[in-house]
UniProtKB/TrEMBL annotation:
PROSITE patterns: NERD. It comes from Kozakia baliensis. This is NERD domain-containing protein. It comes from the Bacteria. Pfam families: NERD (PF08378). Residues 32-151 form the NERD domain. Keywords: Plasmid. InterPro entries: NERD.
Length: 210
């Protein structure tokens, strides 16, 4: 970002163009997203369940799936999508987009639309299943959307979204017994595929006892 020289005698302030403002907004969103992922990863690591973090998988012939966390439990694989948001999130589970609303903003404020994390994670689950289905065709792949931060979830969405506390409680209950052989092999398959995949974001990270 470039600082513009102020005229003599004027108050000191930093001006930025629309493009620079967009860059700052994107950086803030990235930082918030990383913070949410770190919070969820810490909860997973405390559970000591086998898990992968921050991985990319191929999806079809020319697309990718960017997955925040993949956890192996006795119930199957949990594909975890993390969102760290503020304000109130409204919408329905079948909607393509949700809305983010802040207290005190005018009624005619432009809507802030968020692509549905449920839709997003359904694609991730399909990519995981595609990678492991030859190991065990009946393996269970479950979607989990975890919201961190100070967020109010509309009642219509609450059954489909977990708070960090609720997700942590689920991990604790899933700790015993450990994943069965098919689920553990499936996790290793995904790790190997992500490690070979050149488009992965920053390297697959492994945690847990698996």
């Amino acid at each position: 970002m470039r600082l513009r020289r102020r005229a003599p005698g004027t108050a000191s302030r930093r001006l930025c163009s629309d493009a620079e403002h967009a860059v700052l907004k994107a950086l803030r969103a990235e930082m918030q997203g990383r913070r949410g992922e770190d919070e969820v990863r810490a909860a997973i690591e405390q559970s000591n369940l086998p898990a992968l973090h921050d991985l990319m998988l191929p999806r079809g012939a020319s697309h990718t799936a960017q997955i925040d966390h993949l956890v192996a439990t006795s119930a199957g694989l949990l594909v975890v999508e993390t969102k760290r948001l503020s304000g109130r999130i409204v919408g329905h589970s079948q909607d393509d987009h949700w809305r983010q609303v802040f207290a005190g903003e005018p009624e005619d404020a432009p809507p802030r639309r968020i692509y549905s994390p449920l839709r997003q994670n359904a694609v991730h689950c399909a990519a995981v299943y595609e990678a492991v289905r030859d190991i065990e065709a009946d393996i269970f792949v479950h979607s989990r959307v975890v919201m961190t931060g100070v967020t109010e979830i509309a009642p219509q969405l609450a059954p489909f979204v977990l708070t960090l506390a609720a997700f942590t409680a689920e991990l604790r209950s899933a700790h015993a017994p450990q994943p069965d052989g098919a689920t553990a092999r499936a996790l290793r398959r995904v790790a190997a595929l992500a490690a070979r995949y050149d488009g992965r974001r920053s390297g697959t990270m492994v945690s847990g006892s698996g």
